């Protein structure tokens, strides 16, 4: 996002003013805000699991150390937010340990909140583009060769579609690497977490809660990108169907304009030209995680 901050600013300045301008039309709010509850609820779920993941990461070592103190286990085993080892000595209960704990807690909070914010911002852009596509479908559906100013409406829709294609290109430029990286890492994370969980002999309540929340966070994060990409493709397809379904048969010039509009490429998001962003990519991530889980279990059983 920092590398492409100028492109992100251009995208924001292109979509936001147009969307609020359309909202001023009393006939359009219901059309533009169609399915807004799905986008909003999905972002709420993602944010909830983001905050829960932060809380679980930070609270788990505190709870375990308090449990040792309550059961009078000495010396108490010090734990960090991020499991690992440092190449220097960390005295227990000292200032250095507190600094490490605070630094790791801050890094977890910043990382997850930034991640959740970027994921939610992606759905906002998709929602705004989809809203404009619905508005264009509405205008085309209520336009024919006898409508006053139909040439102007068609010209505006063609130009607006070109602008949306430019916005799609910017989205691919910014979020293509993000989506591809997220899908690859989430597939590995889901596989490793499930394998580690299945190998545990005794599963504590804290570990089960951590596993459930973290897995749900990764599932929802993957689903958000895949579902949003599918929504954009679906709205683009509905727009083409609305163009084809308009009353263009009685006027040759109107027919020519409709043919030009039907020749416009649909809005389809791709992740670095590697894969189309749709529900299928979510299914592929889940299938990949499960396939490698079975592979790891087979190798482990043979050993």
Automatic annotation (TrEMBL):
<feature type="transmembrane region" description="Helical">
    <location>
        <begin position="45"/>
        <end position="66"/>
    </location>
</feature>
<keyword id="KW-0716">Sensory transduction</keyword>
<keyword id="KW-0552">Olfaction</keyword>
<feature type="transmembrane region" description="Helical">
    <location>
        <begin position="108"/>
        <end position="127"/>
    </location>
</feature>
<dbReference type="GO" id="GO:0005549">
    <property type="term" value="F:odorant binding"/>
</dbReference>
<dbReference type="GO" id="GO:0007165">
    <property type="term" value="P:signal transduction"/>
</dbReference>
<keyword id="KW-0812">Transmembrane</keyword>
<protein>
    <submittedName>
        <fullName>Olfactory receptor 73</fullName>
    </submittedName>
</protein>
<dbReference type="Pfam" id="PF02949">
    <property type="entry name" value="7tm_6"/>
</dbReference>
<keyword id="KW-1133">Transmembrane helix</keyword>
<keyword id="KW-0807">Transducer</keyword>
<feature type="transmembrane region" description="Helical">
    <location>
        <begin position="207"/>
        <end position="228"/>
    </location>
</feature>
<keyword id="KW-0472">Membrane</keyword>
<keyword id="KW-0675">Receptor</keyword>
<dbReference type="GO" id="GO:0005886">
    <property type="term" value="C:plasma membrane"/>
</dbReference>
<dbReference type="GO" id="GO:0004984">
    <property type="term" value="F:olfactory receptor activity"/>
</dbReference>
<dbReference type="InterPro" id="IPR004117">
    <property type="entry name" value="7tm6_olfct_rcpt"/>
</dbReference>
